[in-house]
Specification:
By secondary structure, this protein is α+β, with helices and mostly antiparallel strands. It contains eight helices and 14 strands.
């Protein structure tokens, strides 16, 4: 039986190269998360969330490992038959190339630039349709916030997902609050009201992202500022917990993104500035192991996990025969 399988994951290779770790003979875990109907499934391949289209019925909760092989620049995934009752099949994986991405963006009416790509990543994370009208609207508003375009695109996407109307003044105030640029002693009540008005609207709707800016103080003097972000999936389960922290005295910055599955943390991605992040990762790993927690820890580029961490979203194309 012939079948076309299209998978969109969470972090596009802009250079058109295969993701790290996908080598001949490698084993990856494939998990079917949910049946979306119409032959479409939400799944996970090598830890990356994907959307799979398959003519073969796949049961939610099914997990299996698959081996990777490559031929003529293409990558194939073959489930191991000894551990699954899924019919023998081979999936072909090819990473979207730069020219393919540029063509896709242009077909959607967007400029082929980093902001458009980041916007697509955010909509992918939120499970939103790649609607050309919505994409253009978000893009055109985001470019007005110089130096904050990507963060603006993330927030506007979240607001659109939650169905919240906003003014550009409210959005600017929210950006400043989340970036820790607003003085907690600011006497401008209109500014403070604008910040928290939009933030409270976002957090009042319990889906996708809730965001909590915080400040660490001692004797009324600020020591550090940052944000906590909680991403809840469509099933109401915590999927991501993001933490950012900037210490004011030494300019040390920390970023953490904790990935959850069924209420349990499975992976921690982290980054830092002005600190020995490798040493911190080692300390954290030993502390977790001493408490019986076998959690993967990975040091990554900050652009992958800052903001909503949608920078991890990938786009691949699978095809093959079942």
């Amino acid at each position: 039986m012939n079948a076309g399988v299209i998978v969109q994951t969470g972090q596009l290779s802009r250079l058109g190269v295969a993701p790290k770790g996908l080598q001949n003979g490698s084993q990856v875990l494939v998990r079917i998360i949910a049946d979306k109907g119409g032959g479409k499934y939400e799944g996970s391949v090598a830890g990356a969330r994907v959307t799979i289209t398959s003519k073969q019925a796949l049961a939610a909760g099914t997990s299996f490992t698959a081996s990777i092989s490559s031929k003529n620049g293409q990558i194939f995934l073959t489930p191991n038959p000894v551990e699954t009752n899924i019919a023998q099949q081979t999936f072909e994986l090819s990473v979207i190339q730069n020219e393919q991405l540029a063509g896709l963006l242009q077909n959607l009416g967007l400029n082929a630039d980093d902001l458009s790509y980041h916007l697509m990543q955010q909509l992918k994370q939120l499970g939103m349709k790649m609607d050309s009208t919505l994409l253009s609207k978000i893009y055109n508003i985001s470019v007005k916030f110089k130096g904050k375009e990507k963060r603006a695109a993330e927030l506007i996407s979240i607001l659109a997902k939650k169905g919240i109307d906003f003014s550009e003044e409210e959005l600017l105030a929210l950006l400043q609050e989340l970036d820790g640029e607003t003085d907690s002693g600011d006497s401008n009540n209109n500014s403070k009201n604008s910040e928290y008005k939009l933030l409270n609207k976002i957090n009042s709707i319990k889906n996708t992202w809730q965001m909590l800016p915080y400040e660490i103080v001692s004797n009324l003097a600020p020591l550090a500022k940052g944000n906590l972000g909680f991403f809840v999936d469509d099933a109401g389960q915590l999927s991501l917990l993001n933490l950012s922290c900037s210490w004011l005295s030494n300019n040390h910055k920390y970023l953490f993104s904790l990935e959850y599955d069924k209420g349990f943390c499975q992976n921690i991605k982290m980054s830092g500035e002005g600190i020995d992040i490798s040493k911190l990762a080692d300390i954290l790993d030993k502390r977790l192991l001493s408490n019986g927690k076998n959690i993967s820890i990975e040091i990554v580029d900050p652009e992958l996990i800052e903001g909503t961490a949608c920078g991890q979203e990938e786009f691949y194309v699978f095809g093959g025969e079942v």
